[in-house]
Backbone:
């Protein structure tokens, strides 16, 4: 089954800027990173800056998996409300995660500034909203909890272009990027470093985790000997690990044509509603609306192309109706791109960042959920210490068996 399908907006509008060889000989390294998506790129970036000898392998082309379907919405808020997250993992951990995600926004900005001065990073406001009056009391409770963390916030009872009955606006707590483009740019930057090697079209089929090293064999039967290994490709990782608490979903996205009315409106924000699964909103620099949601849990039926096609068309229609209702003050908005991607979710919607109990010297940075890019940063920062034997308290929040 393909991870992505449809007319991928961010991939279609960004050419492949660089290619990398496939592995054609046996090699040694300190850290092997499996996965050439945005998580692999960010993980390699942080570890390379620590001076480790890094090898990255990607079974396809870097950035061509789920990364190419990522909407590039970076928000400090996670997929679960703060008050609900506190009940699941405790108040201290929940508040810590919201603050870490906010800090990760700054880390992404620093990465973009370092690798390419032409990559623009613009902070935006975040809106969390409902169009139902009945949810006002719950929204007020959530507002007070988040405000205690020191965020610059405002309570909303309406909006100029979005159908909002009640909501929370948090100043400067989000950003939008082209995740596919950023992945390419990070790898181009890393490819110029002496301590990083990148291989495309190289699939790891066999992994033997030993007490003091890890040995892998590729699809062409070449050996990779490493001191440590990090899984960053969620779907490849699930093939090697058992009992990982992750469920896979298809999520659907529409991208409109350019909307002239947006030129006269302040669209310096991203937004997400309270629905489960939620709808999310961002705008492109050339005035398009990106609107997504309608998540569906993966089943064996998705291997049937006709079934997926019919389901996708149904979901795109529902998304379009929902989008028109949400943007009630705009004229009918024409759609130019429609696509879907495959993403994983844990029960608490948080990532998995851990050393694997049954695979010595093997770690994972699995940034499941819609906040995947920022989760990748959290994982990379934690693992750059963990691979060297230093474990911070933060890793306890993201363990496989938490």
Residues:
């Amino acid at each position: 089954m393909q991870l992505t399908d449809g007319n991928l907006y961010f991939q279609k509008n960004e050419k492949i800027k660089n290619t990398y060889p496939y592995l054609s000989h046996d090699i040694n390294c300190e850290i092997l990173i499996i996965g050439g998506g945005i998580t692999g790129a960010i993980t390699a970036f942080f570890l390379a800056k620590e001076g480790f000898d890094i090898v990255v392998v990607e079974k396809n082309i870097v950035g061509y998996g789920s990364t190419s379907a990522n909407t590039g919405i970076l928000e400090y808020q996670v997929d679960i409300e703060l008050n609900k997250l506190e009940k699941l993992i405790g108040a201290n951990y929940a508040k810590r995660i919201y603050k870490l995600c906010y800090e990760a926004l700054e880390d992404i900005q620093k990465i973009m500034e370092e690798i390419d001065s032409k990559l623009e990073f613009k902070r935006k406001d975040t809106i969390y909203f409902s169009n139902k009056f009945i949810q006002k009391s719950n929204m007020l409770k959530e507002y007070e909890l988040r405000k205690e963390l020191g965020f610059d916030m405002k309570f909303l009872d309406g909006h100029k272009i979005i159908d909002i009955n009640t909501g929370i606006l948090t100043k400067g707590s989000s950003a939008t990027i082209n995740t596919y483009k950023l992945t390419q740019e990070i790898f181009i930057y890393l490819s110029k470093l002496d301590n990083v090697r990148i291989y495309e079209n190289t699939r790891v089929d066999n992994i033997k985790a030993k007490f003091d090293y890890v040995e892998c064999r590729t699809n062409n039967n070449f050996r990779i000997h490493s001191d440590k290994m990090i899984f960053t490709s969620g779907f490849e990782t699930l093939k090697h690990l058992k009992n990982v608490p992750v469920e896979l979903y298809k999520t659907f996205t529409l991208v409109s044509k350019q909307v002239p009315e947006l030129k006269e409106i302040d669209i310096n924000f991203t937004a997400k509603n309270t629905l489960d699964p939620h709808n999310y909103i961002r705008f492109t620099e050339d005035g398009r609306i990106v609107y997504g949601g309608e998540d569906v849990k993966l089943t064996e039926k998705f291997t049937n192309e006709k079934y997926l096609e019919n389901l996708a068309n149904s979901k795109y229609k529902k998304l379009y109706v929902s989008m028109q209702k949400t943007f009630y003050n705009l004229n009918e908005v024409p759609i130019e791109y429609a696509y879907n991607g495959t993403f994983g979710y844990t029960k608490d919607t948080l990532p998995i960042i851990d050393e694997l109990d049954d695979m010595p010297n093997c770690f994972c940075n699995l940034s499941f959920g819609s906040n995947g890019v920022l989760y990748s940063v959290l994982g990379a920062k934690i693992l750059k210490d963990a691979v060297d034997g230093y474990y911070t308290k933060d890793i306890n929040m993201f363990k496989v068996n938490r």
In short: Residues 131 and 143 are 16 Å apart (CA to CA).
